[in-house]
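Re: beginner question about structure tokens

> Can someone show what the tokenized structure looks like for a real chain? I only ever see the sequence side.

Sure, here's an example I had lying around. Input first:
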Amino acid sequence: MVAVVWMWVYALLVVIILLLLGIILFSGGGIIRRRRLLSEIGSLRREVQRLQDANEALRGSVGVGTKERTESFGNLFEMVKDLEGLRCAIGGSSACQRVLSDKYGVKSGPELLERILAAQPGMDPIAKRKFADELLVGEIGRSILRSLDGGARLEKAASDAGVPVSVSRTHVTILQNLGYLDTHLKLTDRGRKALA
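And the corresponding structure tokens:
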């Protein structure tokens, strides 16, 4: 009888050990889950490395950090800053007028615009001109130029541009000061080029 009891005790102990092993291996903290997580971590590390390599390749193809590219961006930013300053100076900013006069030696007008564009010799002249036209004339200015070129009065040009007459007068003043319009509100060659 004692042998039968010990056999049941051993069988019970074997069942308990098997249950504990099952819990360890197949539950949330088991070896199988750990292996799966390790393989997932490895695949994520490979993906991160692949993305880093692609990022380095893209940086190399764009030329980030190269001296020529940095210099060309610097020249472009300098030109944009000066064109913005010119627009502010024509709008009445004495600080912008002073900075540009000190830098280029002339007052606001077509000659200053030409000097700003000439200060960047490494850039394409047509691209510089288009860029300056876009920044200084804008869509409202082009609409006003088109209307005035068609013989419309200033009020009609303002209506066509969708702005109040006071705003269109400000734009006309800027366009005249930069040489896009003459004093009789007729387009100059520069004004016609801005419309092209």
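Each token stands for a local structural state, so reading them left to right follows the chain. The CA atoms of residues 36 and 42 lie 10 Å apart.
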